[in-house]
Amino acid sequence: MAPERFVAAPGRLDAVVASEVGRSRADVQRAIAEGAVTVDGRIRPKSHRLEGGERIVADLRDDALPGPEGPPVPVRFEDDDVLVVAKPAGVITHPTDRRRTGTLVNRLLGMGVPLAPAGGALRPGIVHRLDAGTSGLLVVAKTDDAYASLRDVFRRHLAERRYVALVRGHLENERFVVEAPLGRRAARIVIDRSEGRPASTSFEMRERLPRTSLLEAVPRTGRTHQIRVHLRGIRHPIVGDRAYGGGGDEASRLGLTRPFLHAARLSFPHPSTGATIDVEEPLPEELATALELARQDG
Hints:
The chain folds into three domains: 4-58, RNA-binding S4 domain (Structural Genomics Hypothetical 15.5 Kd Protein In mrcA-pckA Intergenic Region, Chain A); 75-156, Pseudouridine synthase, CATH 3.30.2350.10; 161-263 and 286-295, Pseudouridine synthase (2-Layer Sandwich), CATH 3.30.2350. 20% of the residues lie in helices and 29% in strands. The protein has seven helices and 17 strands.
């Protein structure tokens, strides 16, 4: 497997590399200790602070590659360069050092889809991710050229991603923006105003319900769990999101066993033609049912 090469985001070296290559921080720390990660050609300690823009080379070799599995996932757009799929809730996007099966990548391999090797051994073709509990649209690169182009599109925030979220309570404003930096505290993502990375999400009211609100969320940055943590931060957590305050009786009444968060629209310039690819995905059955119950939950 060829080393991973990328331009760094700001942050601590081990955290940035782990996020970029889709491996655990412990796995990355071992590679750093072995001298397998360089920053602008120099070996640095795991705690080295990156300013952003440094060139990182990370040689994280792993012989246990993910294999093909079923069932297939729905395809919403496909050509020789890219594939847009509807990821089901409960499926993680790509394998990790601890898990090699049951992921979207395994399913794509089972469908015989060619995936860009440049994504790395554990996440070939994967340009961006959705949380395991989130359903909806995700674009995959078939070729290395498409992968490089799409990564640049997402890095420059030229792709538009629109999510639908059902949240607790009623909000005063029809439109608002949450700007709050995010950091990691153990396994959780938290608002961290001292050392967190900048994160911004815009929201728009779609429907006011008796106990809840249906929002459209557009992340302006691409941090892990961004929409979920921002909504918890304003005390309107996503219903069904037990990790960030949205569990309990309300989720049970609506039959939700996962967060009511769905990637409903994805728009991006095609890597070869530049034409806009714009795809929409309706709510899956379990969320549509929960929404109807929420409308009657007086």
